[in-house]
Amino acid sequence: MAEAAPHLLDLHPRSWPEEFVRLGGKAFHGRSAANWIFRRLAPSWEAMSDLPAALRVRLSEEHPFPRSSLRARSEAGDGAVKVLLSLPDGATVEAVTMPGTSGLTACLSTQVGCPVRCAFCASGLEGLERNLSSGEIVEQALWLAREAGAIGRIVIMGMGDAGHNLEATLAAIDALIDEEGMNIAARRVTLSTVGPKGALERIAQWGRQVTLALSVHAPDDALRHELVPGVRKRTLAETLSEADALFSATGREYTVEYVLLEGVNDSPEQARALGGLLRRRRCHVNLIPWNPVDGMGFQRPPRERQEAFAETLRDTGVSVTLRRSLGRETDAACGQLRRRSLPAGPDPLTV
Fold first, then answer.
1. CA distance 138 to 40
2. Which active-site residues does the annotation give?
3. Residue 270 CB neighbours (<10 A)
4. Hey, how many other C-beta atoms are within 10 angstroms of the C-beta on 205?
5. pTM of the prediction?
6. From edge to edge, which strands make up the β-sheet containing 254-260?
7. CA angle 127, 199, 287 (to 5 degrees)
8. Tag placement on the chain: N or C end, fewer CB within 10 Å?
9. Do 128 and 93 form a contact (C-beta atoms < 8 A)?
10. Is residue 80 within 8 Å of 326, Cβ to Cβ?
11. How far apart are CA 178 and CA 38, in angstroms?
12. Spatial contact of 100 and 348, defined as CB atoms under 8 Å apart
């Protein structure tokens, strides 16, 4: 049985003119359609009034758009907007926008569920269902732009781990940063990953000027392997060495993501240990107070404990930001909105 042709959104927008010729249109129709999709945020092919009617019919038949539907939407008082999208196979995926000083930041997912199964994260509680295609990642950005407004930054930090679906993620970023796509500067894109084997080397080969956000969450291998089971075959030393090599290749400093869990990884001793690992590296630490998830045995540290950890880390010579949490009224933690929509079943923490 012949493999199905890729959906138009799975193709780079610069290849659309060729595909539109195959569909019976003209090359300029492909460029016009890309403008409609990525800049004018058209909700469907039917809305593209300058395309021939017959071409719009064929597009709808061969490349249905949108492929996903809006299943749920929640909005917090601080302006964060989260959407839950339903895909044609019934899978669901989350995406969110967050307000900032430079406009809206879109947080996109790369997988349905997550194979890394961080102990404090809702995304991996049901494990990995499947990878998203590049077009399914792109479509999240389109939904968010239509629902919340113009996007100024993109962070690949939603459900899943980009390093475990890297080729589709890089292809999606290529489409979003291209002039024929959303035209978002590569330097305004952050890609988060735990750094599975080969991922950081591949990002270096790819060569775009995006920012790496390396998920660490502990200052030693024993605790990191407990909190992030998906990296049990990797050491912090080798992962940080690969991040340093990525900096050498691109000239882009990376960030270290560290979720603060009260009584688990937020002591002064752990801050000093983390500083010892990082103080001579070209990186910046993002401290992220944990967003509560029902049924998990963790607590968010009080603000004074968060600030003390940050100050101790600064004293070691490391650059630090203590992040302000947005969306705490809107199922903020990754995977929460999706988790609430799933059929009731056994508690994944106890099976």
1. 15
2. 94, 334
3. 20
4. 10
5. 0.91
6. 69-75, 81-86, 92-100, 103-107, 151-156, 189-193, 211-215, 254-260, 283-289, 320-322
7. 70
8. N
9. no
10. yes
11. 10
12. no
Average pLDDT of the chain to the nearest whole number: 91
Centre a 10 Å sphere on the Cβ of residue 128 and count the other Cβ atoms it contains.
20
Kindly report whether the peptide bond that precedes residue 66 is cis, defined as omega within 30 degrees of 0: yes
Helix axes 303-315, 268-278, angle to 10 degrees: 40
Are 151 and 141 a contacting pair, CB within 8 Å?
Answer: yes
Q: Which residue matches tokens 């949108």? A: 66
Mean pLDDT value of segment 169-184? 98
- CA contacts within 13 A on the Cβ side of 233: 5
- Residue 4 to residues 34, 62, 89, 263, Cα–Cα distance (Å): 22, 10, 15, 51
Residue type, 116: V
What pairing do the DSSP bridges indicate for beta strands 254-260 and 128-131?
unpaired
Supply the Cα-derived Rg of the chain in whole angstroms: 21
List of domains in the chain: 10-62 (1.10.150.530), 69-341 (3.20.20.70)
Residue 324: is its pLDDT beyond 80?
A: no
* Tokens (6 digits) for 123: 């995304």
Instruction: Give the CA diameter of the chain.
Output: 68
> How many CB atoms are closer than 10 A to CB 249?
15
What is the per-residue pLDDT for 1? Answer: 45
Distance CA 217, CA 118 (A): 10
Residue 151 corresponds to which amino acid?
I
Q: What pLDDT digit, counting tens, does each position of 48-107 carry?
A: 999 999 999 999 999 999 999 999 999 988 889 999 999 999 999 999 999 987 789 999
Tell me: the pLDDT tens digits for 91-107? 999 999 999 877 899 99
**Residues paired with 190 in a beta bridge:** 155, 211
